[in-house]
Write a structure and sequence with these properties.
By secondary structure, the chain is mainly α. The chain has a domain of 66 residues. Helix content is 41%, strand content 3%. The chain has a two-stranded antiparallel sheet. A hairpin with a 2-residue loop joins strand 1 and strand 2. Helix 1 packs across helix 3. The chain is flat and about 55 Å long. The two termini are 27 Å apart.
């Protein structure tokens, strides 16, 4: 499962920032593995770093092969599904806010309290 998450994250990262494709020409560093793990909220043990470097390098080699494909004749698409959106009327329902607040797992005053998900490079 961890391998799949890393593959998905790395491919999204590569697509989002083409400048990161420089990684393809060398084995990804230990520092880069740790940074990706931090951004992915994954805990990687020190003894797993070597294995992760090999896996990431393998993924990057695969992406490099994909980049070599000629896709100039392939029509761009955002969704391969032929399904259509089915909309329903957006009708509001009146509810007592106190009843809703009582149902929250954690609250502070009249607000839902959630776990902090933002951080900077220092913490």
């Amino acid at each position: 499962m961890l391998g799949l998450l890393l593959k998905v994250y790395l491919i999204k990262l590569l697509v989002a920032e083409k400048k990161r494709l420089v990684y393809i020409n060398h084995m990804i560093s230990e520092e880069e593995i740790r940074r990706i793990a931090k951004l992915s909220y994954l805990e990687i043990k020190d003894e797993e770093i070597g294995e992760m470097r090999e896996k990431f390098s393998s993924i990057l080699e695969y992406v490099k092969k994909l980049q070599e494909l000629d896709v100039s004749l392939v029509k761009e698409t955002a969704n391969l599904s032929q399904s259509e959106n089915i909309f329903r009327p957006d009708i509001g329902i009146e509810r007592d806010s106190e009843d809703l607040l009582k149902a929250l797992p954690r609250r502070r005053d009249n607000y839902l309290e959630v776990k902090k998900i933002l951080y900077n490079e220092d913490n």
